[in-house]
Amino acid sequence: MRKHLFKFVVLLISFSSIYYLYTSHGIGAQIKKNKPVIITGNNVKSKLDQLIGGIKHYLTELTGNPKIKSGNIIIHSEKIIIRGKDSEIAECIGKVVIIDKMNNSVLRCKKAIYYKQKNIVEVRGNLNIIYNREDDNSKIHLKANKIIYNMYNKIANAYGNVTVKDNEIKIFAKRANFNRMTKKIIFRGKPFIRKDDDTYRAEEIICFMDKKDIILNKKVHVTTISEEKDEKTGEIRKVRADTNCDRIEHFDNEEKLSRLTGNAVIKREGAIFHGKMFEIRGKDSENVIGENVNINYETDNTDGYGDYFRYYKNKGYAMLWGNSMMMIKNKKSTEEKVRIYGDLMEFYQDIDELYINGNVKIFHSSSIIYGDMARYIRKNNQMIITGNPSAKKDDSLIMADTIVFNTENNDTKLLGNIRGSADNRGI
After folding, report:
1. Residues 15/112, Cβ–Cβ less than 8 Å
2. What phi and psi, each to the nearest 5 degrees, are found at residue 20?
3. pLDDT, position 32
4. Above 80 in pLDDT, residue 253?
5. Looking at CB atoms within 10 Å, which of 33, 58, 72, 281 has the fewest?
6. Which strand (E) or helix (H) includes residue 339?
7. What residues have CB less than 8 Å from 357, skipping those under 6 apart?
8. 3-state secondary structure of 125
């Protein structure tokens, strides 16, 4: 997500420029020194607007495309109206344009209103803010039905069809809140982000101006479409992944790190991943790290678990370790056939081959096979156990150099230097 996207918020600072309208009514003391305000227009009219409690309230109207200039800020509109005894309200009406040269921004709307007592600025009507980025001169656009900016607490609220976009992503929401003090923007009202074919949804989306980070909070759902190489055919294909969790934190650092927490579930082609936490790293999500991960490979009738999980997207290669377990199920009934334990399990995403290293235990039927290493070849349902392997069943214990086990029919072969004891029930 683009680190410059949310710089649009600096434009809200320019709303305060309407405050300078009041110099024309003798309130120059409220304006900072050495910052003259120039107001030009073809026509100026002043009249009694109303009489309240014996106090006269006047209305001053500037027409003829009046222009206000103060420092780096220029305001254009078709008409400017100033109301009240002490200029309590000022309105810029019709084709309002606020140019902020310092922040490289332009705001356009139909009406901008300043309320002196509340010290707020309201802009509305075809509201459009354009920010020109300094690095590549590309444009960032903000649209909303209305924005209210409180100049006391430095908080701006945007309402109705809020849209923020640049040349890569778009953010949509019903409303947004920006706090200039904390530099935090919160999008609410069914907010979502679109980037190419990817969609990110949550109850609220939080962005930080100073860190350029993004948080998706509560009922998060993400749909991504990625191009991946098929390990069998070598062809590039599009793969869809759906992610649900309580929270995603995206850190716009060199790693492009995204952290998923709270009942995280990732569903992708033929596989479901459940985890306490996932970290996705890289511009194209090249690496995935997980904790307390359960895996269900639906097409391969295989389930797995590990305290820790790591996946390398470019290689299609994955690892499970820490109380790691893999269960091979019956293709027809989905009942457990073989349960495998080991210190470390390595496999490719389609589990054509599975490598188990350290403290290998294979449970099948009423027998247990032990070893230091094992290799599972799915196409012929064969498990090869090496490194001091042994097979145990009831009171029988047989050792050999290699044990070959068939996960489909439970046939067991012992090869090389066979020794041990066995009763008449065999292995």
Report:
1. yes
2. -75, -5
3. 42
4. no
5. 33
6. strand 336-348
7. 342, 343, 344, 345, 346, 372, 373
8. strand
Q: Which residues pair with 405 in a beta bridge?
A: 383, 412
- In a 3-state reduction of DSSP, which class is residue 380? helix
CA-based radius of gyration for the chain = 34
| Residue whose C-alpha is closest to residue 11's, from 74, 105, 101 | 105
Query: Tokens in use for 106?
Result: 């332009």
Indicate if the pLDDT at residue 379 is higher than 60: yes
Higher pLDDT, 217 or 42: 217
| Strand-strand pairing, 353-364 and 336-348 | antiparallel
Taking alpha carbons only, the member of 159, 153, 199 closest to residue 176 is 159
Q: Which helix (H) or strand (E) holds 149?
A: strand 139-150
Provide the pLDDT for residue 309. Answer: 96
- The answer to whether 118 touches 133, Cβ cutoff 8 Å, is no
Distances (CA, A) of 110 to 64, 69, 91, 128, 276: 16, 19, 10, 10, 50
Q: What angle do CA 388, 390, 391 make, to 5 degrees?
A: 165
CATH H superfamily, domain 1-180:
Lipopolysaccharide (LPS) transport protein A like domain (2.60.450.10)
Q: If you average pLDDT over every residue of the chain, what do you get?
A: 81
Asked if 318 and 300 count as a contact pair (C-beta separation under 8 A), the reply is no
Cα separation values, 42 from 17, 61, 63, 91, 184, Å? 21, 11, 6, 17, 42
**Buried-exposed string 31-53: b where 16+ CB fall within 10 A, e elsewhere:** eeeeeebebebeeeeeeeeeeee
pTM beyond 0.70, yes or no: yes
Query: Domain ranges in the chain?
Result: 1-180
Distances in whole angstroms, Cα of residue 304 to Cα of each of 43, 262, 325, 375: 79, 20, 5, 15
390-409 tens-digit pLDDT: 999 888 899 999 999 988 88
Return the pLDDT at 254. 67
Which parts of 62-161 fold into alpha helices (H)?
A: none
Handedness of CA 177, 178, 182, 187 (dihedral sign): positive
- What pLDDT score was predicted for residue 208? 77
